[in-house]
Write a structure and sequence with these properties.
Elements: H1 6-11, E1 26-33, E2 64-65, H2 74-79, E3 85-93, E4 105-111, E5 119-121, E6 134-141, E7 147-154, E8 166-174, E9 180-191, E10 198-199, E11 202-205, E12 225-233, H3 236-242, E13 247-249, E14 252-255, E15 258-265, E16 268-276, H4 287-303, H5 309-322, E17 328-337, E18 342-348, E19 352-357, E20 371-375, E21 380-382, E22 385-386, E23 389-390, E24 402-407, E25 413-417, H6 419-424, H7 427-435, H8 443-458, E26 466-470
Parallel strand pairs: 1-26, 2-6
Antiparallel strand pairs: 1-12, 1-25, 3-6, 3-8, 4-5, 4-7, 7-11, 8-9, 9-10, 12-26, 13-14, 14-15, 15-16, 16-17, 17-18, 17-23, 18-24, 19-20, 19-25, 21-22, 25-26
Helix pairs in contact: 4-5
Length: 472
Amino acid sequence: MALRGLSRLLGRSFYPAHARLPAEPLQLLAAWPQQHLSSNGSSVLGSTVGAAGNSTAAANSAGTTTPSFLASYGVAARQLHSDLETYRVSVVTGNLRGAGTGSAAYVQLIGSYGESDKFLIGNSEDEGLERGSKVEFDVQVPPIGPIRRVLVEREKASCTATGDGWFLEAVAVQGPKGEQYAFPCNAWFGHSDCGDFEGSLERNLLPLVESEALQALAVQAAPVTVAVSGVAFPHPEKVQKNKIRGVNMKGFGYGGEDAYFYATGQGVFGMGVADGVYMWKEQGIDSGSLARTLMETCQHMVAAGCEDVFKVLSIAARHVESEGVQGSCTACLLTINLESGKLQSATLGDSGFLVVGRGPQQASGAEDKLRIKFRTPQLEHEFGCPYQLGHHRHANSPADADLSTLPVVAGDVIVMGSDGLLDNMSDKEMVQQVRGRLCGCCPACQVADLSFKHVLLIKDNQGGWWVMVEAP
């Protein structure tokens, strides 16, 4: 990725601007899920935590409590009470043994234009977070736009308290105009009373992707494993001119200004790619250092077991800033819960990934029916000017990232890459490469080789990755 001109980048009032150069490193990663997941409609509901059985949404059979809240936003907000919008929030506790808790929790809505206060739930016997329960409440807040994520925090319990663990199934939100949002969780908060499961007390829940290809799937009671390959190839012109070479190690690699990682922690797999801006070199700044530091930090967090992809990106970005690393880059991260097959992603800029797989009713051998089930959107201020993290005042932040949740199943293939790969290989070519992956060649190398043929013909940039999910 390259800037149209650094002076233009620094001169714009609200976003960086840059264009691509014909000399981008190529990065490629691939992964495949390995266990078919059962279907439960369009929501990612259920759990694979332990062997005690599936967790299912208990909203239909459980009692529903409905507390009502009114946010306090100061005198000005109260005077403009008529401008407040009402959101209905539903919190579903799983139907697993020990899923309920006596501790209270906080829920916060984060939208495109602002965020709500944190609302307390489960703080009384009438509004408790019991096993299989559904708590509904209305919140009135100033306009915050479409809901991008939901932050859930559970209060710390005393050392003598029982019912410490809480298994949150999902949060659903209905907007002021009737719009529906689903935020699957399927995870423990704190330590479970049975099964010895441990989870963070704070989680960012990301919206479930609405896709015809995904509507019949649900993340429910089926573990997955991931087979992955990654490669970084500097563009041949950079190799000849600047003597740049690609460095590919297990779990981490880089070439030129770009870097990638993949890692497995306790119950979670993660991978990501960062595409650095080449034109910072004119100012004596190496964006490759920023991309590498960002990806290394993400790798350490995933290896430590952090599944919250928004938290991974946010902490990694803060670490880069605290280290004083300069430059800018796009970034794309994803994590996969290995107990349930739930994929969470954060995409900032024109790096991204796509999921190739079969429909839920197709036989495992029907390779001719492969199709693209999901593709991340490219976030650009204008054509050739993608969102990016960086040290300059016009840079974006992790809060600007596109956030998504979706299920992956056995046989799915995830191809992740920078704009060089995604801009220069068509969807049809991607599917063809996935279909031919059994030839014995490293899938990442296959796609890299084909994308270089394109870049050498059209004199444009390339970058990419490849991953596959398989059955244990």
